[in-house]
Structures are given as structure tokens and as C-alpha cells.
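Two folds, back to back.
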Amino acid sequence: MAARMEAERTGFMVLAMALTWTAAGQGLGGAEYYWDNDPGAGNGQAVMAADGAWDDVIEGLLLETSGLPGEGAHTLGLRARNAQGSWGPTFTTVVVIDPAIGSVPEIRVTLAEYFWDDDPGGGSGIPMIAMDGNYDAALEAIMLETDELPAIGTHTLSVRSRDANAVWGVPFRVIVDVLPGAVSFPNVEVTAAECFVNTDPGEGSGTPLLALDGDFGSAFEALQGGSIPVPVIAGANVLWTRARDTNGAWGPAFGIVANIDTTITGTVGVPDMEQERVFVLAPNPTEAGKGFLIRSDRVLGPTRVRVTDAEGRIVAEHRFNGSNEWYVPLADVAAGVYHIGILPSEGQAYWRRLVVH
């Protein structure tokens, strides 16, 4: 086994490795590394394939450097496993840890995208959303929209992410077979919602919430409450809400801090609100220089999206064709509160607030 290593200031060491097993065409099934003392085959630190797949005899590897040993000379051991689970011989090399590389900058995912088959280039794919609404970690769970699958047959799905230095990583690729029955999806709807204060009473045991339009029938719903959940203590409390889908499964609870005044007597009237389209901005808050998605509960025709600052000055304006989702880029935007105008070519305008930090 031979290896080549380059140390980079990105939090990873990139290695290329070739096995000398005699079986021609033998693919890799995994790899591991260790520093100084050999823990035994299968007990080292796992290594990732640079392209996300162990499918070649020669593989580019990603070795995390967030846990480098102390300064000085150390022995780096590296070995690979074939597709049958047999570990090959160990390759060792001496690595000198200098003070200059003893600290590694923070690694964060700032954007992610995907594309089918042909690579449009870094930054030109279809944007993806972080599951928690915020790209702030080195590992992120991301959502991929399947509303527009490619034609029936075999396709290559590629996913890649961008780091804090605006550098796009290597695409991770997987083969996807689009079957005739896979192009239709069950309706995603909210069927119920509830809230509770501080202590979780259990799914389905909270105080029910009402759909603003009187009907739970959409994937996005505007909700209104009734009585304040009890028991409650005056002052700062955490108010939690969650929703249930068509399969009867409750989603995760979302909590906000609310200052509750228990000295108010009687009831506080809530004026009836006109039914309107539901729009969600995600992520919100977002970061300066990053874009965001606008999602609607139904399809709009050609639409302009206008971004204005707190003083009403137009920061950006974009035009989109008919859809229920648009990606709005933000460039050279300072931190602050912005108003997002959704201006269909026909019908009323809608405004939402976006926080940029």
C-alpha cells in the first residue's frame, strides 16, 4: 500500500491510497487511521472517502485534524479494508506537528445544493435547507425537495456543501432509480396542533391550537390559540408548540420564551383575521451574505420579491416564474431587520419580516 499526504488549513488532511492486493479490480470497503500506538485492525479512527463512496482501488480520503496529537514528531498509521472485510497491511509515516498548524479554524457548512446527472458548477445547483433552519455546524441534516424528480430510469444524484470560506466541497454522488410509482407522493398536511408551557405533558395531551383558516389541510398552517395552558407561573416561561401529520405522528416541539402576566382578569379579544396565503421564510434568522427560501401553501403566478431595509429603501428585487417556492439570494446585506415583499402579478401583495445577523 502506498500513500500520499498533504496537510491543509481546512481541518482535514487529504490522502490518496492504493492497495496492492493481488485480486484485480478489488474495491475498498473502508479505511481507518491512528496516531502512534496501533489499537488493532478495526479499532482505529474511521476515515471518509473524499467522494463519499468506496468504489475504487485508489481512493481520496478525508482525515479529520480537529484532534491532532501534541506538537512534535508522531507516527500516523493508515490501513484499508477490502469489500470482503479483510484489513490490508498498515502504512505508516512520520508527521511533524508544528505550532503553526496546532490550531484548526472552525469548520461550518454555510450552504448546500444538489443536482441531477450533469454538474452545473459550484453554486449553480438546487439549494437545500438545513433541517434545523440554520447552517451552523460541520455536519448538517439537510432537506432535498423531490417535487421535480427526473424522468423514470437511472440517474446520478449529487450533493455538495460550501464552507465558511465560501469554498465548495467535492460532490457526494449516489445512483438513484426513479420508478413509475415513485413520482407520486402522499399529501403532506397538518391535522392537529397543540401547545404547552414549560413541562411536556406528552404528545396529544397539550392545549389544542386552531387553524387560522378553520381547516387543517395544508403542509403550512397559521395557528391561533385559545386559553392559556395551565398551570402557569407569572414571568418568563417557555411556550412550546407542535403539530401532527396525516399519519398521526407528532413532530418535534418548537419553543419560545414568553413573559406571561397572570394579573390580567377577563379575556383578551383577538380580532378575526382575513384568510390569506401562508408564506414561510427559511432560514429565518439568516446570515448576512446568504440567501433564503420563500415557501407558499399554494402556487403563485409570476411574482416579484422585493427586499427593503428598516427605512423602506429597496435593497434587492427579483422576478420569479410561477411556483410555490423561490430561492432569494442576499449579497452585500448588513445585519438587521428586513421586510420581504411578495408581489404577485395578479392579486394582493404580502409582506413578511426577515432577520439577518
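---
second:
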Amino acid sequence: MGAKLRVIRRRIRSVQSTMKITRAMELIAASRIVRAQQRVEAARPYAELLTRAMEDVARQVGSLSHPLLEIREAPERVGVFVVTSDRGLAGAYSANALRRAEEVVAEVRGRGLEAVLYVVGKKGQSYFRFHGVPLAASWTGISEVPTYSAAEEIGDRLIRDFAEARIDELHAVFTHFRSAFSMRATHQRFLPIPPHEVVRRELGKPHPEYLFEPQPAVILGELLPQYVVTKVWAALLESAASENAARRRAMKAATDNAEELIKVLTRQANRARQDEITSEIMEIVGGAEALAQASGE
């Protein structure tokens, strides 16, 4: 009976140690969610102003013509940009993104085109390599706390491959962050840039007139690549917030489960200790009765 009690107590200590780790990870993820939300909110005004500037310039240009707006008549290769996590313990966060990416890849292949993969995160990298899918490029170490320099590096690579016709379209798969309790793996076309994203017609609304230096077409040529980088940056920020939210939920569930398991093990330990004490009492009583019988004889 004593051996069983020692095993239960050892398991309780093990679960308590694990619970400390999961609680610490939950608190770290919770603090990162706040920072990630702030970064998402801080990036939105820049994206909105950049879009508005493109609209104003495009309105002056008249007919839009730029390589990043070019819809190719006979596409052959489609780039799929996938954002996953570098670490696990985030529930189904990476699995949902990879499932959505597989759907996009299947859709591309269904059109008779070749899918070219660009992956952020070790989870996505290892997943596609395990399935024997070659990667055109991959980036790691930036999923939880992405930097703008990383977004520029990724955006420049994607723009260069599109401009050099290594890919004819670019689709992005990332996790859209709604709140700490709501997130969804989503998919958007990044390249070629849809014309409606550059020029939005708002009837009945006057538009300001500007004098441009250099020419509007030159300015638009500088703004469009920056627009793509901004979309990559937004996808990384949304995914980072979603990853931390998913990790917080997973670690909270693990902590709650550990607490419940400790309660169950504590009851088992108390029962084992009670059985042990009862056995000892019975042995003492039995010994006393034996001594009493021996002295009576």
C-alpha cells in the first residue's frame, strides 16, 4: 500500500510542475496578445492612408498599367504564401492554416496549374517537407513577433518572383484575427493586385485635386510594391495575434485539466493513505488480541 501512495504523490508533483509551466506560458501568451493587438491596430492607419494615396494617384493616371496589376492570360504557376507558427502548443492554429493551404493548393492543381509554396514558420516547413512538397522559400523565427524588416524581405521576394514570371499569381493563406476568442484561417489573392483595391468608385463624393511631382504613373509604380509589402505585414501581424490567442487558450485548457487531475490524484492519495492507516490499525488490533489470548492462556 505504501508503494502505491508514493507513486500517486510522485505523479501529483509531476502534474504540479507541468501546471506551473502551462500557467507561465498562458500568462506570456496573454501579454503578447495585447501587444499583437496594438501592433495590428497601429498598422491599420498606415495601410488605409497608403490605399487612399494609391486611389488619388490612380485617379490622375487614368488607365492603370503596371506589372503588379497585370492579369496574365495563360498562367502556369501560382504562388501560395502560407503563414504558420514556429512552435507548437497552440491548439489547432497551424493545423487550420495548413488545411486551408491544402485546399488552395488543390484548387490550383484542379485548374491544371503548378503550385509554388512560400512558407513562414517551422510547422508549415516541416509539414510540407514531410509530404515531399518542395518549397520555393521559407522563413522561420518571426511567427510570434514579426518585424517589418522581415515583411519587407518576404514582400520583395514575392514581388521579384512575380515580376520575373516565376509565378503568375500569388495567393496568401493566413489566420485572420477577430478577437482573443475568434480567429479564422483565410485566403486572399495578393498578386496581381485587384484593380478595385486601387481605385474605389464612390459616387456623389468629391475628390481632391493634387499636383504631382514626379508624374502620377511614377509615384504609383513606387506605391504598388509598398502596398504588397503592407499586405504581407498585415498578414504576419494578424497571424501573430491569432497564434498567441490560440496558445493562450490551449495553455489555459491544459492548466485547467492539470488542476482537475491533481484533485483526482489527491482523492486517490487520501484514499490510499486511509486504507494504509486502516490496515495498520487492524494489524495493531490483531496483535493486541493475539497478546491478550497468549497471556490468558
